[in-house]
Amino acid sequence: MSNKQKFTDYLLEKYSEEFNLATQHEFLKQSGEGSIDSEILKEWLKQDYLFAYEGGIKYTAALLSKISLSPSNSYIRPFPSSDLVPILGWSATNLLRETDWFLSVAKEYGLEVFNSEIREKELHKYGLLGEYNSITRGYIDYLQVIGSLGSIEEGILVLWASEKIYNSAWLYAKTFSKANTSSNDTQKALVKFVQNWTTPEFTDFVKKCEDAMNKFDIELGSEAAERCEKAFKVILWYEQRFWPDVKAK
């Protein structure tokens, strides 16, 4: 695709306004500043954990099952397995590490999102979906649909888009971190979370997902392009709504 626009660039350019809505939310600004309310943060942390642990790990496994690992006549590990197995292997391992770390940091700073005593007392608050809010449940279900019925191109598009948005969102939050001078435990936890979600290693992972996606060399106007573009719009829709509503300060 050296002589034409990369498919990922096409999507980011066409949906730049929607992408900005997903990555420049007031919740992110206040998280970077350290001014977000602790109860709002705790509820978001719970939803993010549920999404990553249930949705993310199963999704990477589903994508791995779609990839042929058989050698071709020319290569022992032909594309896409040569690129995608390391990417998906890292993703699954990192999700497990991330969710374990996530809980330990939350507990360290008094943000226990799954405290058994509190959960038991608050069971009456939950509706038919239990502790999942409707966006989290719908987003996980969408991953399961793509993981089961989508093509590998759609699958990697969804992986790249969700990780690109997440990384870009927290890089945006980080631009406000100089204002976070509080010694409050909630704000101390936020400093760790923001640093973790903006590491060069994570940003490099997102770039590898993008490069792999573009190696499919998807032609604009093709059926594959239409399916992937539709998936990109769905991810934008969910990501815009995954952030909790907060009033500007």
Automatic annotation (TrEMBL):
Instruction: Tell me where in this chain the Thiaminase-2/PQQC domain is found.
Output: 22-244
InterPro entries of this UniProt entry?
Haem_Oase-like_multi-hlx, Polyketide-peptide_reg, Thiaminase-2/PQQC
BP GO annotations: thiamine metabolic process
Q: In which domain of life is the source organism classified?
A: Eukaryota
The protein in question is named Thiaminase-2/PQQC domain-containing protein
* Organism listed in the record: Kwoniella pini CBS 10737
**What lineage is on file?**
Eukaryota, Fungi, Dikarya, Basidiomycota, Agaricomycotina
